[in-house]
Amino acid sequence: MLAAFDGYKEECKRIMTTIAARLQAVRSRIAAAAESAGRPLEDIRLIAVSKTFTGAAIQEARAAGQVAFGESYLQEAMAKIPVLGPDFEWHHIAPIQSNKTRQVAELFHWAHGVDRLKIAERLSSSRPAGRPPLDICIQINISSEASKSGVAPQEVLALARAISPLQGVRLRGLMAIPEATPDVRLLRARFRQIRELKDEIVRQGIKLDTLSMGMSDDLEAAIAEGATLVRVGHAIFGERPQGPG
Ligand SMILES: *Cc1c(COP(=O)(O)O)cnc(C)c1O
């Protein structure tokens, strides 16, 4: 009995040091990428993508100083977020179904997967009174993949114009996930296209300050092209069980 408990304690300690160490390694990668891009480190924030991982794993990352977390599955997020308490910043990073906008507007600080005006309007009208507007990003289907969600690049300016007057949301920038490729030049070109789209929208008079791009395997390329929020999952928490994410 006692031996089993000691084993359990050992296991907790192992998970803890692993997450803290991985988090530190990711921070070092971000710092190195910022330095080689000649960018200030403060301009880049890390979102720890905790989908499929337990509240205990999230607490370990929190204890190691991580504040912003990303979740993709609403049911799972609804079970974890209220239990963890107020000391976190939550980012919804998946497409949003129109019958789920109220939960997203109530639970999260940010939503990165907005790709239709109707979703933005519903998020805006269901943001609880007394809370600051929900920060949102428009998701772009930058590689025009049939399987990916997101608005087409040529439609993003019109969507940004329509969203920016809404009161319950605050349009902060663009989010995208380029196609998976070992071709670093192609990847860089995709991230650059996202940045150029953002720059174009800013030139049209809409204030944006956010580029949500880059994940565990490509954060360096994203930072080189101007990412301000990187969404990193398995490099912090380990491999996810097989699933839709
Ligand atoms: C799962 C997920 C991530 C994290 O992916 P990793 O490759 O594990 O870093 C980032 N962004 C989105 C939108 C995701 O769904």
The number of E-state strands comes to: 8
CATH topology: TIM Barrel
Number of helices: 9
Radius of gyration: 18 Å
Order of helices and strands: HEHEHEHEHEHEHEHEH
- The stretches of 5 or more residues where confidence is low (pLDDT under 50) are none
Helix content: 40-55%
Q: At CATH's second level, what is the architecture?
A: Alpha-Beta Barrel
Structural class: alpha/beta
The level 1 CATH classification is: Alpha Beta
Bound molecules: pyridoxal-5'-phosphate
In percent, how much strand structure appears in the residues?
A: 15-25%
Q: How many separate domains?
A: 1
- The overall average pLDDT, rounded, is 94
* Alpha-carbon distance between the two ends: 38 Å
CATH level-4 homologous superfamily: Alanine racemase
Side by side, the strands of the main sheet go 7-6-5-4-3-2-1-8
Protein model, in words:
By secondary structure, this protein is of the alpha/beta class. It has a single domain (2-237), classed as Alpha-Beta Barrel (TIM Barrel), CATH 3.20.20. The protein has helices at 2-37, 55-63, 74-84, 101-107, 117-126, 156-163, 184-203, 219-224, 234-237; strands spanning 45-49, 68-71, 89-92, 110-114, 134-140, 169-176, 210-212, 229-232. The chain has an eight-stranded parallel beta sheet. Strand 5, helix 6 and strand 6 form a beta-alpha-beta unit. The chain is globular, with a radius of gyration of 18 Å. The N and C termini lie far apart (38 Å). The model has no long low-confidence stretch (mean pLDDT 94). The structure holds pyridoxal-5'-phosphate.
